[in-house]
Amino acid sequence: MKTIKWAGLLFSVLFFSMISGCSTVKIQDYKNEEPKLDLFTYFNGTTYAQGQFQDRSGKVMRRFSVDITGTIEGNTLTLDERFVYNDGEKQQRIWKITKNAQGKYTGTADDVIGEAKGESAGNALNWRYTLDLPYKDSSIHVQFDDWMYLHTQETMMNIASVSKWGFNVGQVTLFFNKKPL
Fold it and tell me: Does residue 151 come out as left (phi exceeding 0), alpha (psi in the -120 to 50 range) or beta?
C-alpha cells in the first residue's frame, strides 16, 4: 500500500513539474511590448526605488528604499545602489553590467556569486543570479529570478522570485522611478 502512495505522489510531482515547465514565460513573449526597455538608457543618471520582501506565504518581512546612480562607460553600466531598510539597516551594492549582443547582459557585484545573466525583449528584462545574502550571523546563497517591466519611460516594476535549492523562499517586489537628468 505504501508503494502505491509513493508512486502516486511521485507521479503527481512529476506531472505538475512538467505542466509548470511547459507554461514558463519566455522573454521573447514580450518582444512586441512598448515602451521598449533599454537598460542603459533607463538607469543612466539617478533612479529611486521602493520595495519589499515577502516570505513564501506572502507575508511582508522587510521594506526598503534604494537610491541608484547609474553611469555608462563604453558597453558597461555601473549601478551604485544604496539601500535603506525599514529597520534602519543600510547596504550598498555596486553592479557592473555589460551589454552583449542581441539584448543579452552579464553582470557582477561583490555579493553576487559568479555572474548574473540577463536578457531583454520589448519592455521586459529577465535577470538571474545567485546572491550571497546576509542571514543571522552568517550568509546563505539564494537564487534570484528577476522580471523587470518598463511601464512608462519613468516607471518600471520588478518582481523577483527568490529560491534556495530549488524551493521558493519568497519574492521581492520593487518599483523604480526615474529622476529626470
Answer: alpha
pTM (2 d.p.): 0.84
The type of residue at 105 is: Y
Q: What is the pLDDT along the chain (181 residues), one digit of tens a residue?
A: 554 554 454 444 444 444 444 458 999 999 999 999 999 999 999 999 999 999 999 999 999 999 999 999 999 999 999 999 999 999 999 999 999 988 999 999 999 999 999 999 999 999 999 999 888 889 999 999 999 999 999 999 999 999 999 999 999 999 999 977 6
Cα pseudo-dihedral 120, 122, 124, 129, rounded to 10: -10
Domains (range + CATH), the chain:
28-178 (2.40.128.20)
Burial class (CB in 10 A: 0-12, 13-18, 19+), 138: exposed
Q: Which of 28, 97, 99, 37 is nearest to 68 (CA)?
A: 97
Question: Which cell is 129 given?
Answer: 543570479
C-alpha 8: how far from its chain's center?
35
